[in-house]
Amino acid sequence: MSEFTLSAVLREDEGKGASRRLRRENGVPAVVYGGKAGGNDRKPVSITLKVNELNKALENEAFYNSIITLTIGDKAEQVVLQDLQRHPAKPMVWHADFLRVNKSTKIKAHIPLHFINEDVCVGVKTGGGKIAHHLTSIDVLCSAGDLPEFIEVDMAALNVGDVVYLSGLKLPKGVESVELAHGADHDDAVVSVLAVKGGDDEEAAAE
Q1: One domain for residues 87 and 154
Q2: Which CATH number is 148's domain given?
Q3: Is residue 206 part of a domain?
Q4: CA 77 → CA 30, 81, 99, 190, 198, distances in Å?
């Protein structure tokens, strides 16, 4: 798993006006919540992040699904990114939410799918088919320490007419599909190799 660190300062002023001032000063308002201390729920904490540091981290896909070391003042906490709000018209991060975790904390996460060996897929190379992606990410439930950065889908052996469903994905140990937990009728198609309509018949007709 990739390692990420962010630094922040506590934020006392809240509200829309205070948030606007922070953004003008190249800060990003954020909140850290969750976790327990002494058996009691910990209170949410408002913080300010450095926009350049956050933007650099967001360029890495793995940041969205990794445990992050967040340093607030002289204290470090383990967190995961839970929500990110962006400006509707500008390439700006508007607000971020982080959840306190340890490696055993059960969390739900949105994990990207990486489709590998598409260039040597049997159904495309020898069968003349085309690949159709039905999902590009899935929701999973796992401990924070088992959180995958991505899930690979190997396309090499797929032939025309083959379909990979959620149940056919090779999930890491300790990781389960949120959809499949609802029952077999939620076993959605992930990717398939389709026959190309027309093909030689259309070319012959054109001649």
Answers
A1: no
A2: 2.170.120.20
A3: no
A4: 14, 13, 10, 36, 58
Shared domain check, 87 and 124: no
Q: What is the DSSP string of the chain?
A: ---EEEEEEE----SHHHHHHHHHTTEEEEEEE--EETTEEPPPEEEEEEHHHHHHHHTSGGGGGS-EEEEETTEEEEEEEEEEEE-SSSS-EEEEEEEE--TT-EEEEEEEEEEE-GGG-HHHHTT--EEEES-SEEEEEEEGGG--S-EEEE-TT--TT-EEEGGGS-PPTT-EETTGGG-GGG--EEEEEEPPSSTHHHHHHH-
Q: Do both 93 and 171 map to the same domain?
A: no
In a shared domain, residues 64 and 114? no
- How many CB atoms neighbour CB 17 within 10 A? 9
Domain boundary among 101, 127, 161: 101
**pTM: predicted TM-score of the whole model, two decimal places:** 0.84
Q: Please, is 4 exposed, middle or buried when counting C-beta atoms within 10 Å of its C-beta (0-12, 13-18, 19+)?
A: middle
pLDDT in tens, 47-105: 999 999 999 999 999 999 999 999 998 999 999 999 999 988 888 899 999 999 999 99
> In the block, which residue shows the tokens 């209170």?
43
Residues 93 and 114 in one domain: no
115 belongs to a structural domain: yes
Instruction: Identify the domain boundary among 101, 131, 149.
Output: 101
